[in-house]
Design a protein that fits this description.
mainly alpha; 5 helices; 89% helix
């Protein structure tokens, strides 16, 4: 007689505890997914979307300060490389036209990269934003 009472109390306690644990876990997973979605939305913002004024300031600094300094550094490096290239070949006695094509190609690549540094940086931010938003969407889903 007492065995049936104790078994019923034990069954009731098991159902009560398992229900509470299950409810807490489901609530916890829902909260974690919701917070992860909110974090993904904030982290996934582009610099323009985060603060347009700071983005414009950084763009202006890049165009008016960093680009001229980088241009001067590239000019010095390319002049040094041209002088070294000419003196290496015995003051143009053993000249090869391929050297000039290689030099002009290096020069073009350097100037192109300096001119498009800000665009390349923004492309990296856009790819990161796309990855974060895709990850946030898959977590929310």
């Amino acid at each position: 007689m007492f065995d049936n009472i104790f078994e019923a109390i034990e069954q009731w306690m098991r159902e009560l505890l398992s229900g509470m644990i299950s409810s807490n876990l489901s609530t916890m997973f829902t909260d974690v997914n919701q917070k992860t979605g909110e974090i993904a939305a904030q982290v996934g913002q582009t610099p323009q979307g985060w603060d347009g004024n700071i983005f414009a300031l950084i763009r202006n600094l890049s165009d008016s300060v960093i680009m001229p300094i980088a241009g001067m550094i590239i000019t010095f490096v390319l002049c040094y490389e041209l002088i070294a290239m000419l003196t290496e070949k015995n003051n143009m006695y053993e000249i090869d036209t391929w050297m000039f094509f290689k030099y002009f190609f290096k020069m073009w690549v350097a100037v192109y990269l300096v001119n498009h540094t800000f665009d390349i940086t923004m492309a990296v931010f856009d790819v990161g934003q796309h990855v974060v938003s895709a990850a946030g969407a898959s977590i929310n889903g």
